[in-house]
């Protein structure tokens, strides 16, 4: 696989993950009638864990937050 293709793939996946995480945060903060608050909270925490792990591991591979498209999200602030 080409390095550029892999970079684009990671950036696009992380863009999608951020969008899904932001929606999960909205759903957790404002659950729809009949929705399980515990489920929404758990779903949000899963996104929190994935994004936090990706951000924390990036430096070990010589990657910046910008390169992996995660510089604009802070799990501890944005997803709790």
Poorly predicted sequence stretches spanning 5 or more consecutive residues: none
Strand proportion, as a percent range, falls in under 5%
Q: How much helical structure, as a percent, in the residues?
A: 55-70%
Number of domains: 1
**Rg from alpha-carbon coordinates:** 14 Å
> What structural class do the secondary elements suggest?
mainly alpha
Total count of strands: 0
Figure out the total of helices: 3
Q: Gap between N and C termini, in Å?
A: 36 Å
Form type: elongated
Sheet bearing the most strands, described?
none
Average pLDDT for all residues: 93
Q: List SSEs in N-to-C order.
A: HHH
Quick take:
By secondary structure, the protein is mostly helical. It contains three helices and no strands.
Textual characterization of the structure:
The chain has one domain. The model has no long low-confidence stretch (mean pLDDT 93). It is built from three helices and no strands. The protein starts with a helix and ends with a helix. With 80 residues, the protein is mainly alpha-helical.
List the helices and strands and how they pair.
Layout: H1 3-29, H2 37-57, H3 75-78
What features would you highlight for this structure?
single chain, 80 residues, mainly alpha, 3 helices, 65% helix, 0% strand
